[in-house]
Design goal:
The protein is α+β, with helices and mostly antiparallel strands. The chain folds into two domains: about 70 residues, no CATH class; about 190 residues, archaeoglobus fulgidus dsm 4304 fold (2-Layer Sandwich). Helix content is about 25%, strand content about 25%. It has six helices and eleven strands. It has an eight-stranded mixed beta sheet, sandwiched between helices. It has a three-stranded antiparallel beta sheet with strand order 1-2-3, with no helix packed on it. β7, α4 and β8 form a beta-alpha-beta unit. α3 crosses α4. The termini are far apart.
Length: about 280
Amino acid sequence: MCNHNFHCQTGDAIDSVAYGCSRAGNNGWLELRGMVVRTVPNRSDIPAMPDLFPITHDRAALLDVQRIIASHACAEDRFNEITGIKTIAGVSQAFVCDKIISGIITLDYRTLDEKKRTHAIETEDFPYIPTFLAFREGKAIISAYGRLPPDERPDLLMFDRCGINHPRFAGLATHIGVLLDIPTIGVTKSILCGTYRHPAPANVGDSRPLVYANREVGWVLKSREGCNPIIVAPGHRVSVNTAIEIVRHCLRGYKLPEPTRQAHIYANAVKRMYGAENHTRQR
């Protein structure tokens, strides 16, 4: 269900005015880095985007933001009412010098054939702090997403980061999902928080529920023979059960599902290219 009675209707999103955003009038729409985002009408309780990506390193302030994100996360399936899931995109970050590279690869959901790829490179202005990765990587992700033409934006984003399987139920996949109000899933290689009933899943496709604070927050999934299980969790507008079915569909013989596997390869390819270009300039 949706936390705190938040009505997660398709098209609603956080009212954001930061990072070059400008209002597009009083019709409930605004422009975010060249990307039109729908706002939540008459929702004075939702902070503006600057407050959801604070520069401060004050732990109390960051915890407040994560509580806000968690309270507006939706744990029900809320996909495009007309098309459902026709496209899915993987999102992954790479790091070089003081830069964050966010790579996005959009795939046809049925065939997993590539349809579009794009990336953004942003200056890192927040340190690496475990459980607060959204504050470090989020703006680069938003920037990359904004480069996708409106008619080519995916129906769902899959991240190589946590979703609600997070100490405050506000992992990066949830944070970005709430901000953009799009369905998101998080897939990781290890458990950040929570436990599952042993033994671990032994056969490919087998899974165990991941439980944290008496709440089912995801799955421990055996994705490939000879590899440790991966962790699957919903981020926003996806249920726990649907999240694992989507990830199972995206497995193609590798440990990681195709969206995040391909996005990881892409982001690191951009990293190598960026590093080579800067090395040449410095010579």
